Amino acid sequence: MNDRPRGDERRSAPERHDDLRLLSDRLAALHAALLDGERHAYEATYGPTKPAELLWLLIDDARALRDRRHASAGDRVGHPGSA
Questions:
Q1: How far apart, in whole angstroms, are the C-alpha atoms of residue 61 and residue 53?
Q2: 4-17: string of b/e by CB count within 10 Å (b at 16+)?
Q3: Res. 49: pLDDT tops 50
Q4: Which of 8, 25, 49, 80 has the fewest other C-beta atoms within 10 Å?
């Protein structure tokens, strides 16, 4: 077993905190870009939407996607109701 510290364990707590802050900032920017793309796609089809309406559309879509994934996973493992 190797008892040497990994590279990230040799870094100071402030350095690791800075790395996490940078990662957080980049993820927030990605999240904003993804939401903006979804908003543009929706509005191109259905017209302008308010932020609260878009939030509910995204929540409902995520819930529907989750339900579809669970349903298809149940079909693969032979849950009741599967073919």
A1: 12
A2: eeeeeeeeeeeeee
A3: yes
A4: 80
Cα 79 to the chain's mean position, in Å? 28
Ramachandran region of residue 49, left (φ > 0), alpha (ψ -120 to 50) or beta? beta
If one compares 63 and 35, the residue with the highest pLDDT of the two is 35
pTM of the entire predicted model: 0.60
| Residue 82 banded pLDDT, cuts 50, 70, 90 | very low
pLDDT in tens, 38-47: 899 989 998 9
8 CB-near residues (< 8 Å, 6+ apart): 16
Instruction: Report residue 35 as tokens.
Output: 């939401």
Nearest Cα to 18, choosing from 8, 29, 33? 8
